[in-house]
Write a structure and sequence with these properties.
Radius of gyration: 33 Å
Number of helices: 5
Largest sheet: 17 strands, parallel
CATH topology of the domain at 339-574: Pectate Lyase C-like
Oligomer: single chain
CATH superfamily of the domain at 339-574: Single-stranded right-handed beta-helix, Pectin lyase-like
Number of strands: 68
Distance between the termini: 82 Å
Structural class: mainly beta
Helix content: under 10%
Strand content: 35-45%
Shape: elongated
C-alpha cells in the first residue's frame, strides 16, 4: 500500500495525474507492455519492471504514462535496464491517434526498431506526447527519422538521449515533417547518420523545433546538414545549443534551404564549432544556406572569430556576434602550398608551406577589402601525391597562383571534377594546369550561380563530362573570363567538348586555344537559354562535331586576315592547327621549327593575340594559348636554355608587401632593376651592379608603399624589359 501511495505521489509531482488513475505493473499484472496499454484507460500508469521487452507498442490514442521503475526511484540506471527492443520489425513506439502531452513515455531505452519512418518512435496525426528520461538508440528508418519521426506532430522531449540511429534518407536522429515543432530540453543528439539530409535533425516545411540546452555532436549526413537541416519556411529556435563535430558535404553543422532561418538567443548563447565538410571552401563547414534571408549568428563560441565562407557560406548572408573561438585567427595574408609541405606549418612563407589546398582554404582569410592569394609551388597536386581532395570548391576574394602551367598541375585522376565556383566573381586563377577531371557536367571546371572567375595562363586538358562541358561548364548567368587559356583534348557525351554555356551564361575568351576536344562542338551555347559568349583573338581547331554552336553568327566566318596574314573572322579568330610541340604527351608549347624564319613551321598562334593585351614576357605581341613561344629561346634545344637576357613574371602577383622578381643573364653584364609607380615616377632601385651569367631572384619589400599598380624595369647594355605588378594591402 505504501508503494502504491509513493508511486501516486510521484505521478502527481511529475505529471499532474489524478489520484484516480490505476497502476498497472508489467510483468506482474500483464506479461507485455502492449497488453498493459490495451488494458489501461486515460489517466492510468503502466510501470515496467527491469528487463528487455521484445515489442512494438502503440499507445492507441490513450493519454497514459508508460514508465520504468525510474519513475519511483529517480535512479538513472533503470533507463538502461528497462529496454523495449523492436526486433527490427517496426517502430518501437507509436503515437498515431492524436495523443496529447499527458501521454507520457518515461525512463526507458528504445532500441532496434526498423520502419519506413520513425525507427525508434513515430508520431503522427497531431500526436504530441511527452518523452522524459528516455534513451533512443540503435534504430533505423528506410526513409525518415531513424530515432524519431514527427509527421505533423510536436512532442515534448526532456532529458532525452538520441544516439546512433540511422535513416536511409533524411533525419538520422529526428525528422520534423510538415508542421512539426517539437520542444527539446536537455537533449543530446549524437552519432546519428542520414544517407541524404539532416544527420542529427531534419526539418521540413513549416517545422520549427525549440531547442534549449541541447548538444548536437558527431552526426553525419551524406549530402547536407550534418547537425541540422532545414528547408521550406523552417525556423528552429536555439538557446544554449552546442553543435560540434558534425559532418556532411554541405553545411557540416547546419544547412538551411528555401526561406528557412535560425533564431539564436542573445541571452543563453549557442556554440557552433569544429564541424566538418567533405569538400572545400564555399560549402560552409559550420553553416551553409541557399535561398534564405540573411541570418544573425549570435553565439558564445564559433570555430573562428572572423569567419570566411569556408566556415559560413555564402559569407554575405550572415552577420556575426561571436565572443570566443576555438581556433586562432585566420591568416589575413598570402599563404603557400607545396606537395612537400605540412599542414602543421605556418603556411605564411614558401619556406613553411601547407601541404594541401583544402587546408590552405580553411586557414586563409579574405573579403572584399582583403584579397589574398594561395601560391602553389611546382608539383602535381592529387590524392596520391599530397592527399588533395577534389573537387576543389573555390570562393570569392581568394586568388590561386601557380608556378607555371607546365609546373603546377591539379590532377583529379578522373575521380571528380577539378574546380567548382558557386557565386564567385572576384577571383583570379593563373599559371596552372587542370587535368583528368570527371563529372556529369563540367569535367574540368564548373561555374554556377553568377560565377565569373578570371582564368589566365591556364591549361585545361584530359577532362571529361557525361553530359555537358568536358573542359568547362557555365550555368546560371556565369561568365568567366578566359585569357591565354588552352582547352585541349577534353571529352563530353553530349554538348561542348571544350566549353558548354547554359542558362544565360556568357564567358569571354581572349588569346585562347580550343582544340582537339571530342563530343559536340568546341564551344556550345544552348539557344533555348542563350548567353552571348564573346570570343576574340582565339584559335578553334579540330573539335569533334564543329568548332562553334549557338554563338555570334560572325564568329568563325573568315572575312579578313590577321597580322600574320592568316584568314580570320571579324573578331580575329582563326581556325588553324596550333602546332603544339607534343600534345599527345601534354606539351602545349607552341612550335616554330625554323625560328626565327617565318614559314609554315611557325604556329599560327604566335604573335596572333590581341595587340592591345600586355606583351608576352619576351616583349613580343601576345600569343594565343596558355604557353607563349619565347622568342629569346631556341626550341631545338630540349631544355630550352635562354640565349638572351630574360625577365620573368614576379611571384606572387598580385602581392601583399613582398614579391619575388626572377631574371636570367646570358653573360657577365651590368644590370639594373628599378620600380616605378603608375605615374612613371621612380620609387626604388633594387639592383644596380655587375653580375655574371645565371638565374637570379630578388625580393622587393613594398611595406612602405601604397596599394596600386607598379612596374619593374630590368635594364642591361643590350636589353630593356618592363613588367606590371599589383600591390594589395
Amino acid at each position: 500500500m505504501r508503494k502504491l501511495q509513493f508511486i501516486i505521489f510521484c505521478l502527481i509531482l511529475l505529471f499532474g495525474q489524478t489520484l484516480f488513475g490505476n497502476i498497472i505493473n508489467i510483468p506482474d499484472d500483464y506479461p507485455t507492455i502492449q497488453q498493459g496499454i490495451d488494458a489501461s484507460v486515460n489517466g492510468d500508469t503502466v510501470i515496467v519492471d527491469t528487463g528487455r521487452y521484445f515489442e512494438n507498442i502503440n499507445y492507441n490514442g490513450k493519454n497514459i504514462v508508460v514508465a520504468s521503475l525510474f519513475l519511483t526511484t529517480q535512479d538513472t540506471s533503470y533507463i538502461s535496464q528497462t529496454v523495449i527492443d523492436g526486433d527490427s520489425l517496426d517502430s518501437v513506439v507509436k503515437f498515431v491517434s492524436g495523443e496529447d502531452s499527458t501521454s507520457v513515455l518515461c525512463g526507458l531505452t528504445i532500441t532496434n526498431g526498423s520502419a519506413d519512418c520513425g525507427g525508434g518512435i513515430y508520431c503522427d496525426f497531431h500526436s504530441s506526447p511527452s518523452l522524459e528520461n528516455v534513451t533512443i538508440t540503435g534504430n533505423s528508418a528506410n526513409s525518415l527519422g531513424g530515432g524519431i519521426c514527427c509527421d505533423g506532430s510536436s512532442p515534448s522531449l526532456e532529458n532525452v538521449t538520441i544516439s546512433d540511429n540511422s535513416a536511409n534518407y533524411h533525419g538520422g536522429g529526428i525528422c520534423c515533417y510538415w508542421s512539426s515543432s517539437p520542444s527539446l530540453e536537455n537533449v543530446t543528439i549524437t552519432g546519428n547518420s542520414a544517407n541524404s539530409l539532416g544527420g542529427g535533425i531534419y526539418c521540413y516545411w513549416f517545422s520549427s523545433p525549440s531547442l534549449e540546452n541541447v548538444t548536437i555532436t558527431g552526426n553525419s549526413a551524406a549530402s547536407n546538414g550534418g547537425g541540422i537541416y532545414c528547408t521550406g519556411y523552417c525556423s528552429p529556435i536555439l538557446e544554449n545549443v552546442t553543435i560540434t563535430g558534425n559532418n556532411s558535404e554541405y553545411g557540416g553543422g547546419i544547412c538551411c534551404w528555401f526561406n528557412s532561418s535560425l533564431l539564436f538567443s542573445s541571452t543563453n548563447r549557442c556554440n557552433i564549432y569544429s564541424n566538418i565538410i567533405e569538400n572545400m571552401r564555399g560549402y560552409g563547414a559550420d553553416i551553409f544556406t541557399v535561398d534564405c534571408d540573411p541570418i544573425d549568428i549570435i553565439v558564445d563560441t564559433f570555430t573562428v572569430l572572423m569567419p570566411t565562407d569556408y566556415y559560413a557560406s555564402p559569407i554575405d548572408n550572415y552577420t556575426f556576434d561571436i565572443l570566443h573561438s576555438v581556433k586562432d585567427n585566420l591568416i589575413n595574408s598570402d599563404v603557400y602550398v607545396s606537395v612537400d609541405g605540412d599542414d602543421s606549418n605556418t603556411g605564411t612563407s614558401a619556406d613553411e608551406p601547407f601541404r594541401t589546398i583544402k587546408h590552405a582554404l580553411s586557414m586563409i582569410y579574405s573579403d572584399s577589402l582583403n584579397i589574398n592569394t594561395i601560391h602553389l609551388a611546382p608539383g602535381v597536386y592529387s590524392d596520391s601525391t599530397n592527399g588533395e581532395i577534389f573537387p576543389i570548391v573555390w570562393s570569392n576574394y581568394v586568388n590561386l597562383q601557380g608556378s607555371g602551367e607546365d609546373e603546377t598541375i591539379l590532377d583529379a585522376h578522373h575521380t571528380s571534377r577539378v574546380l567548382e565556383f558557386y557565386g564567385v566573381s572576384v577571383v583570379l586563377i593563373e599559371e596552372i594546369t587542370i587535368r583528368n577531371g570527371n563529372s556529369y557536367d563540367g569535367g574540368g571546371i564548373y561555374c554556377r550561380d553568377f560565377s565569373s572567375p578570371g582564368l589566365e595562363n591556364v591549361t585545361i586538358t584530359g577532362n571529361s563530362a557525361a553530359s555537358n562541358g568536358g573542359g568547362v561548364y557555365c550555368k546560371d548567368n556565369s561568365s568567366p573570363s578566359l585569357v591565354n587559356v588552352t582547352i585541349n583534348n577534353n571529352s563530353v557525351n553530349y554538348f561542348g567538348g571544350g566549353i558548354c554555356c547554359n542558362y544565360y551564361s556568357s564567358p569571354s575568351l581572349i588569346n585562347s586555344i580550343v582544340s582537339d576536344n571530342t563530343g559536340n562542338y568546341g564551344i556550345y551555347n544552348y539557344t533555348n537559354y542563350p548567353g552571348n559568349p564573346t570570343i576574340t583573338y582565339c584559335d578553334f581547331w579540330n573539335n569533334e562535331g564543329g568548332n562553334f554552336y549557338g554563338v555570334n553568327d560572325s564568329i568563325g566566318v573568315n572575312v579578313t586576315t590577321n597580322a600574320n596574314g592568316d584568314s580570320c573572322d571579324v573578331f580575329y579568330n582563326i581556325q588553324l592547327d596550333p602546332l603544339f610541340v607534343d600534345p599527345l604527351n601534354g606539351d602545349y608549347h607552341l612550335s616554330w621549327a625554323n625560328f626565327p624564319i617565318p614559314d609554315s613551321t611557325m604556329s599560327p598562334c604566335i604573335d596572333a593575340g590581341d595587340p592591345n593585351s600586355p606583351l608576352d614576357p619576351d616583349g613580343t605581341v601576345a600569343d594565343m594559348g596558355a604557353l607563349y613561344f619565347n622568342q629569346t629561346v631556341g626550341v631545338d634545344d630540349e631544355n630550352h636554355p635562354s640565349i638572351e637576357t630574360e625577365l620573368f613574371k614576379n611571384y606572387p602577383n598580385p602581392f601583399n608587401k613582398i614579391t619575388i622578381i626572377r631574371y636570367f643573364l646570358p653573360k657577365y653584364t651590368e644590370v639594373k632593376i628599378q620600380i616605378y609607380n603608375l605615374k612613371g615616377q621612380l620609387v626604388e632601385t633594387i639592383v644596380d651592379s655587375n653580375k655574371p651569367t645565371g638565374y637570379y631572384t630578388i625580393e622587393w619589400n613594398a611595406k612602405d608603399m601604397s596599394s596600386g599598380i607598379y612596374f619593374y624595369k630590368l635594364s642591361t647594355k643590350d636589353k630593356t624589359f618592363i613588367n606590371k605588378m599589383i600591390l594589395l594591402k
